[in-house]
Design a protein that fits this description.
- By secondary structure, the protein is α+β, with helices and mostly antiparallel strands.
- It is 34% helix and 20% strand.
- The protein has 6 helices and 8 strands; from the N terminus they run ααβαββαββαββαβ.
- The strands form 2 sheets. Strands 2-7-1-8 form a 4-stranded antiparallel β-sheet.
- The termini are far apart.
Length: 243
């Protein structure tokens, strides 16, 4: 049997531990299992059920549209190239010169040269001479054979003065019936021929070789060099101001 001296301290120790536990000085042990821990966390009195109609509306954020900037259309400007400046025209009034005592060939050559020098030069050809002779003739027949046939008809009409023009040009194969210095003689001869039944003959006035003139009109800056060149080439021509 144990001694009472040992039991007394043991009882005191047990009482002290029990007192400490009751006073909360010693914490209670945690649940030993996961189930016990979950049971300790759940508080049924704190659970509240909410009906769907009582739920607050969900705020949805609309996607933002990208802002489109409305800029005015850019007009493409046409590219322009500056034209080369035209030479200034002379402000001086135009002058007029008449060139006379020309034959037809020289007049035609002068006219072509003036027009080639500048389009601003006005050139006019004038036949201002009086006829020097009057030519009685039958117009060109188109070929030598046709002219010879016509001559045979003249012989039958007792016409002996004639010849066929052979030179190339506007009068080639014309039949000449006479050349007269005055118009009266030409008219008398033509009347006699018609009395013999030749009705296609006619009178053509012929001018003297110096019966052609040219009239030039241009500003002084264009006229001066042109006249200088024409005087050098055609020394017998006469230059006078226009009337």
């Amino acid at each position: 049997m144990r001694s009472p001296k040992i039991l007394i301290p043991l009882l005191l120790l047990v009482n002290l531990v029990l007192l400490a536990f009751l006073m909360g000085w010693i914490p209670a042990s945690s649940p030993t299992s996961e189930h016990q821990r979950l049971q300790a966390q759940i508080k049924p009195e704190a659970i509240r059920l909410i009906q769907p109609e009582n739920l607050p509306p969900v705020q949805t954020q609309r996607p933002t549209q990208p802002t489109i900037m409305d800029f005015p259309p850019i007009e493409a400007k046409p590219t322009t190239t500056k034209a080369a400046p035209e030479p200034e025209e002379s402000k001086a009034p135009p002058v007029c010169t008449q060139i006379t005592e020309l034959n037809q060939a020289d007049a035609d050559a002068m006219l072509a040269q003036a027009r080639a020098a500048s389009s601003k030069i006005k050139a006019k050809l004038t036949d201002n001479a009086k006829p020097s002779t009057w030519w009685v003739r039958i117009a060109p027949t188109g070929s030598k054979m046709a002219a010879e046939k016509r001559v045979a008809e003249l012989k039958e009409k007792d016409i002996s003065e004639y010849f066929i023009v052979q030179e190339a040009g506007a009068n080639q194969y014309a039949i000449s019936l006479g050349l007269f210095k005055n118009e009266t003689s030409a008219q008398t001869h033509l009347a006699n021929i018609k009395l013999k039944g030749i009705h296609d003959a006619a009178i053509v006035p012929r001018n003297s070789p110096t019966g052609v003139s040219i009239e030039l009109r241009a500003t002084p800056d264009l006229m001066k060099p042109l006249l200088k060149e024409l005087k050098r080439k055609y020394r017998n021509a006469r230059h006078t101001p226009c009337k």
